[in-house]
Amino acid sequence: MSLLFLPEELIAEVLSYLPAKPLTQLRCVSKSWNTLISDSGFIKLHLQRSKKNRNLTQILCMSLGSYTLPFPLNTLLNNPSIINSTKNYFPSNPKYRYIFVGSCNGLFCFVLTLYKITYPENTWFQLWNPATNTLSKLYTMPNFDYFRFSGFSFGYDNSTDTYKFVYFRPNKLEIFSFGSNVWKTIQLPHTVPLNHLNRVPYKRKFLSEAMYLNDTIYFLAREIAKQIVIISLNLGNDTYSKLLPPQDFVEVSLHLPTIHVMEDSLYFSHHTQEIDFIIWKMTEFGTEKCWIQFLKISYEDLNIHPEYKNSLSPQCLYGGDLNIHMKYKYFLSPLCIYKSGIALVQAGNGHGLRVIVYNWSENRIEKTRMDSSLLWMINQNYVESLVPTS
Q: Which residues contact 2 (CB under 8 A, 6 or more apart)?
């Protein structure tokens, strides 16, 4: 029988529709296939195809030190009591403490710290691609401050095809560009990352509070005048802007606000004292008037009954308000939006992790207790990719 030869362009077209993990195995077929699948142009084409396939849209579960668990969004909505997915074991080292920074184009970014007694001795950051199971080298953090006064993020600048790691510490942003391995410092006078350490359940502390959307990274911060602001960092030109939260937002002691990315939009959420959970949507970047109230949910509708007690802790940086140490009954965070409702993550000390699927058109809820080993559920989309870690 005569062999059938296909043009390389056609082979690349067909292979670009395959999942990332089989493609890593197909590299072994021949030298030409290995060269093709490893080519930067093919990797970009495959990533574009993966992003367009809505069936691959996934919510990410994290259990730092053991595994990541991505699973399709429709699985959560159709039957939240069942999570059917393949676990990707993160090659962690028990000597280090890990913080999940972010996920972009199939790459995960972590900060890892070697502790001596209770304070960090050395701190690095690292990239991991779970689809190819490859790790980058360790990159050293400059002038690391204690986690209480630090923020981290990871994103991608489309204009220069550059991945960037951002370290937010008091009064400045440190930006690291992968590839060139160059650091750039931006002064941010009288501004510190918003501290969630004493206001969220223990498991939530090991996740970054920053969000990446469309070449831009968003941080929650507090100015010296105690005003909460959102820092918007453009990764294309490394410039920042400040955005005020919604006008009707009034900070309360129960929980600090959080920001989220859902449906390619930025959302701002906060609790009110024992009454409601409110979510705002940013319609366009500008003043606080760009916010519209997206959803207001009463705790009664969610069948949540808060129980907490107050105790004073030492004053925070800049002589600000006293922090409130809470005995948490719950903590809510938006996970994803669907046609007629929203899914929320609920957590609290001693109460495990739950998903609340809230159907606002029918005012109906479904609560599901998740695997006790899960650290958190991330409201970030994840697609498998062949993007290299170095």
A: none
Which tokens belong to 346? Answer: 């609920």
Per-residue confidence in pLDDT tens, the chain, 390 aa: 455 677 888 889 999 999 998 999 999 888 989 999 999 999 999 999 988 875 555 667 776 555 666 766 666 666 655 555 566 677 777 778 888 888 899 999 998 888 665 566 688 999 999 889 899 999 998 877 666 678 899 999 999 999 999 999 899 999 999 999 999 999 999 998 887 655 566 556 666 778 999 899 999 998 877 788 999 999 999 999 998 888 888 766 557 788 998 888 999 998 887 678 899 999 887 666 789 999 998 888 888 765 544 444 434 433 344 344 444 566 788 888 888 888 888 776 555 677 888 888 888 888 877 766 677 777 777 888 999 998
What's the pTM value of the predicted model, to 2 decimals? 0.85
Task: Quote the CA–CA distance of 390 and 369 in Å, as a whole number.
Answer: 38
- The radius of gyration computed from the CA coordinates of the chain, to the nearest angstrom, equals 22
Of residues 336, 255, 328, 254, the one with CA closest to residue 295: 336
> What is the CB-side half-sphere exposure of residue 159 using CA atoms within 13 A?
8
SS (H, E, C) the chain: CCCCCCCHHHHHHHHCCCCHHHHHHHCCCCHHHHHHHHCHHHHHHHHHHHHHCHHHCEEEEEECCCEEEEEEHHHHHHCCCCCCCCCECCCCCCCEEEEEEEEECCEEEEEEEEEECCEEEEEEEEEEECCCCEECCCEECCCCCCHHHCEEEEEEECCCCEEEEEEEECCEEEEEECCCCEEEEEECCCEEECCCCCCCCHHHHHECCCEEECCEEEEEEEECCCCEEEEEEECCCCEEEEECCCCCCCCCCCCCCEEEEECCEEEEEEECCCCEEEEEEECCCCCHHHEEEEEEEECCCCCCCCCCCCCEEEECHHHCCEEECCCCCCEEEEEEEECCEEEEEEEECCCEEEEEEEECCCCEEEEEECCCCCCEEECCCCCCCCCCCC
Residues 6+ apart with CB under 8 A from 250: none
Residue 290 and residue 11: Cα distance in Å, rounded? 47
